[in-house]
Write a structure and sequence with these properties.
By secondary structure, the chain is α/β, with parallel strands linked by helices. It has eleven helices and eleven strands. The chain has a nine-stranded mixed β-sheet with strand order 3-2-1-4-5-6-11-9-10, sandwiched between helices. Strands 7-8 form a two-stranded antiparallel sheet. It binds beta-D-ribofuranose (BDR) and calcium ion (CA).
Length: 307
């Protein structure tokens, strides 16, 4: 039986690849997509989500638009994906359908409420929608079996201000609300996602996928790689695809539990995530952090789904 999921995202090239994987995996039943601001304004991430889903034959998957800005501060956009949030594929048809009238938070609440069993929610953008869901509909939170979130960083250099990861930095108050919500949270942060990079062997593998989808992903990656190459000297990181892949195969990463806090006052670094692995502050663990990844197995899965 495929695992039903709800997917909250801000496409974004890496969100886009994760969306493709979610739709194409026979292990996943993609019940709906909700969008948030982040890599671009929410109107653009919504349009991008619909364009991608329609291109891959998933026009039946409902899309609900979410928060226009973070819960408690102005929106600072990501820079990796260009002004549209999905540069590199101007030929991708514009949306032929609109998003649902329902707000993302209400859509998530409704889907969770009607689910026969608690289900997995994947989030690969700032946590605005999930934070708002916690505030608006605490009654449905027990229906979230696990929230797999791409965000945070603990051990590595970051792409913004070390040690702050973009999704955490964009809406740290929403993250704090989620961390305090008791939703079972798995954090797939830069510690592992910066180990799944698109370099020469991956480009070669992708070049062998001579289909419209293969060429589209190649065009996305050529744009997406620029910022990574210029700022960190590495290829594009498959942040969001790795988080999504854990629905299919949780053993791709190793995780350890910890109490996670987030710096809301820029005491050290705004939006930085801090882990107490040893319960030194006497606070219960509130997340599991992915700290090791089998990159070869991840890429085998990703290319399988793109092929
Ligand atoms: C995260 O931020 C965005 O740029 C990516 O889509 C990913 O979700 C990485 O820090
Ligand atoms: Ca994202």
């Amino acid at each position: 039986m495929p695992t039903p999921i709800l997917y909250d995202c801000d496409p974004g090239h890496d969100d886009a690849i994760a969306l493709v994987m979610a739709h194409r995996s026979s292990a996943i039943d993609l019940l709906g997509v909700t969008t948030t601001c982040g890599n671009a304004e929410v109107e653009k991430t919504t349009s991008n989500a619909i364009r991608i889903l329609d291109f891959i034959g998933a026009s039946h998957v409902p899309v609900a638009q979410g928060c226009v800005r973070p819960l408690a501060r102005p929106l600072i956009l990501g820079t990796a994906d260009g002004p549209s949030g999905l540069e590199g594929s101007p030929y991708l048809p514009m949306p032929r359908r609109t998003a649902l009238k329902q707000h993302a938070v209400d859509f998530l609440a409704e889907k969770l409420e009607e689910a026969p069993e608690p289900m997995i929610v994947v989030a690969t953008g700032p946590l605005c929608n999930i934070g708002l869901l916690v505030l608006k509909r605490p009654d449905v939170l027990p229906k979230i079996k696990e929230l797999i979130w791409m965000g945070g960083v603990f051990y590595r250099k970051s792409e913004i201000i070390t040690p702050t990861e973009f999704n955490a930095f964009c809406d740290p108050e929403a993250l704090k609300i989620v961390l305090d919500s008791q939703i079972p949270l798995t954090m797939v942060g830069l510690d592992v996602t910066m180990q799944v990079l698109i370099e020469a062997p991956q480009y070669e593998e992708l070049a062998g996928i001579d289909t419209p989808l293969g060429r589209l992903v190649m065009d996305w990656l050529k744009f997406y790689e620029k910022l990574h190459r210029n700022s960190m000297g590495v290829g594009g990181a498959m942040h969001d695809p790795l988080a999504l892949a854990l629905v299919i195969d949780p053993s791709l990463v190793r995780t350890r539990p910890a109490h996670i806090g987030v710096d809301l006052n820029a005491t050290y670094a705004f939006g930085a995530t801090v882990a107490d692995f040893w319960q030194e502050r006497g606070e219960a663990d509130n997340a599991r952090i992915a700290y090791e990844v089998d990159a070869d197995r991840f890429f085998a899965l990703m290319f399988d789904l793109l092929r």
